[in-house]
Amino acid sequence: MGTLTIFDHPLIQHKLSILRDKETGVKEFREIVSEIANLMCYEATRDLQIEEIEIETPVATAKCGRLAGKKLAIVPILRAGLGMVEGMLDLIPSAKVGHIGLYRDPETLQPVEYYCKLPPDIGQRDVFVVDPMLATGGSAAAAITFLKEHGCHHIRLMNIIAAPEGVEKVQSEHPDVDIYTAALDEKLNDHGYIVPGLGDAGDRIFGTK
Prior knowledge:
Blueprint: E1 4-6, H1 10-20, H2 26-44, E2 50-56, E3 61-67, E4 71-78, H3 82-89, E5 96-97, E6 99-104, E7 111-117, E8 125-130, E9 133-134, H4 138-149, E10 155-162, H5 164-173, E11 178-184, E12 187-188, E13 194-195, H6 201-206
Helix pairs in contact: 1-2, 2-3
């Protein structure tokens, strides 16, 4: 079974409190999403493999560590996932970025795919699927299924806030995928929103509501 990691770092929790506040404006909200993604990326990449290499410093030869193994890819689920990409690229600028467009049908709450563009070598990369909110889990599970159909074997899911229902959905359909989140909230309401949550992350990132 994939692991569920909830980051309790004080900086992440402080910034999350700003995101939840309904008075936080678009500019600050967008910046904080990126900052949280940066901090979460730092923690979620802790187990990446390194190899020993020799470097000539101005003084002597030094044995140093360098990332080894598979290359990385970040795949945001459009559109809210875009808000997390820049913060992650600050740490791993060589990562390739793919995009999967999914929206949730307001009647059935099921994911509908409308766009997909992935790096051609996506199957050879460790993939971070990112979306600020893991609500019903339908979109995340569908995106992971799609990536597996493209040959991906090492997939991690990163969300800022998750609902128990979403975690259960992803773990049920994809028990091999590790989930990283900054908060596991109480539940979903009748409209499929996370409670207490922070509202619609896409609308608050892009100022569309």
